[in-house]
Structures
1.
Amino acid sequence: MAFTLEKNELTEALAKNTLDDIPSANPNAQKITGLVKKSGKVKGYRLSDDTIVEKKDAIKLARQGGIAGVGIAHRGDTEYLKSIPDGTEDNNLSHLPTVSVDPATK
């Protein structure tokens, strides 16, 4: 039996392979709508309910099913969130706007 994958499916499968964990999202899970950056590095996320969460808290929330559409990956000892590949780039985290956070609220 021959097994063939479309190029898009193969790319998606390989990208999913880079994720350490793909948590199942709860029905009421938030989506990431913006990135909080400092010196070009992601330090946190704005969620669809307009709350801002730090990166480490977002990873914990994603593991608990509280954030939809993301998996957890790592580089070295650092964990980070990554969009679950779905064949489109428009909803990748890297395409989201950078949001500013009032320093008085942090």
2.
Amino acid sequence: MSNLLILIASFLFLFNLPSSLADSDSPTAYSILQSYNFPVGILPKGVVSYDLDTTTGKFHAYFNDSCKFNLVGSYQLNYKSTISGYISENKLTKLTGVKVKVLFLWLNIVEVIRNGDEMEFSVGITSANFAIQEFLESPQCGCGFECKDSKFDMFERKSPFVASS
């Protein structure tokens, strides 16, 4: 029995409990983002749980279902019910589960880098920069920032993914 307790304690040390199973004092997925110097708005509202290996930065964030929404004047985004990748200070890499529609193509967002007051989103073949101010609030699945209860007006965005940087 004591070996089982040691194994469980070791596991919990390496991996945080999913937020839905942890006590109310545990950090949310959004506060974890902030601890790595990212704004909460790069993750839509509705994360039901997450896990993070703090030694490697490997993470998973879970929604009840896929999450789709449009951003004002520009892109359609699609988050699968599970997104994953690696997080470190100012950098998200090897992302899976997040797509953006550019013109007629759905492209995977594979990396996000914070550089000062800008966020760079890479789809592999090209990237686009946005002001960090555009990510101060999390969008809502279904309606993005155009929800009736949203208090934050998004900036009109051009399509920086269309031209290579």
3.
Amino acid sequence: MGENINQAVLLIIIANVLVSMKGLKDSAFLEKYKFQIGRIISGEKIRLLTSGFLHVDYMHLGFNMYALYLFGDIVSGMMGIFNFLIIYFISLLAGNLYTLKYHRDEPYYSAVGASGAVSGIVYAAILLYPGMSLYLFFIPIPIPGYVFGLGYLLYSIYGMKKQIGNIGHSAHLGGAIGGFAFTLLLNPPLFALNKMMVILLSIPIILLLIFGDKLKSL
């Protein structure tokens, strides 16, 4: 997987790296384009897009780009470059819009990261190729792709509760919803072909949509 990385995936990775490096070196640039509730509500809607190309550190950037590298080729290869880009950017915006709703009463809340877009691509890839296995760093045995995807989402829930760092953990959930919904919308036969995987991946999304706001009070 990923031996011949798709050009669209490569361009997205390069864009993330270049913009993130600029933000890490230039705090004014980071402040101008990061996600911030008050600024977005005041009319700076461009932050819904630009914040998805910024990262707080190289580990944050590396983890997101590694996940995109692993799963992006599957989506672009099976659905085409155009649909890959649709899912990527819809997931990015869905993640930030969910974050805007979740933190609506916190005008100074801010975050950055491609987490929403990558979550959408991860969910899309699992829907398209439920039998995938991954070899991850320091783990000598293959891990089912859906285990990684669900683990990624569970970590997001933990991050939402603890508000770890300046990372958009709530964007993971919104992005997963966007990727999940638009993959099924663009490829309706998946409902029948991968019915059990559709049900499995929908469970945490449904539970979080119902009980997500209660995370703040736990």
4.
Amino acid sequence: MRIARFSAGDEVGFGLVDTDDEGNRFVSRMKGHPLLGQIQLTGERKKLEDVRLLSPVLPTKVVCIGKNYADHVAEMSHITGEKGADPVVFLKPSTAVVGPNDPVFYPALSSRVDYEGELAVVIGRLCREVPVERAKDVIFGYTVGNDVTARDLQQSDQQWTRAKGFDSFCPLGPWIETGLSLEEAGKLRITTTVDGEVRQDGNTAQMIHGIPEIIAYVSSFMTLLPGDVILTGTPAGVGPVEVGQHMTVEIEGVGELTNRVVARD
């Protein structure tokens, strides 16, 4: 299933996204919250083009994994140093989260802002100290993420909170794909384009730490709540964007996420 969070008029809700035989896409409104109960439909259906897609979840926290693709570690070693044995973990605040087609604001404090396309894992239940072999039981689904980074601030600061945490620096969307197995999620192509030009072209099979290992590691020291998001790292090819450019991250089998970089008034 593909579960979207959307607005139509003054109402915000969740819905199932499907496609008819002619290729038209629709969203069927759901009752309540998909993470808090059994999925039920209201019978209301709208064309996808007639609604506004929002960030598919509003997480209490976004847990990010750094240095998880060897080629990316190599290209960033002058800024972030060498790779250790354990996953590198940092957080983005919930206020960084935006949805598809929402603006990403270029902060006045930075002179270089980079895209980082990533597979995002959406947690489906409260969990802590999850064994690797049970990681699949706590995954609700997957979405597309962009770990937008003020690269100059990342290099100058002793830690990454400011560089990663600006408002709008965590686009998520366009929906949550719940139908992927762990095996399938571990071999998905990830591409990032800027104004149509391919900048990143990787595959989740290149991750140093796989999804089950990431969940086990993160949950060993923090409780994960339903709707929390884990960004699993970015492949090589990161680079800067300028005001006015469009960033598009596409993950096969999941979806496509586009955001425009704008100057904050």
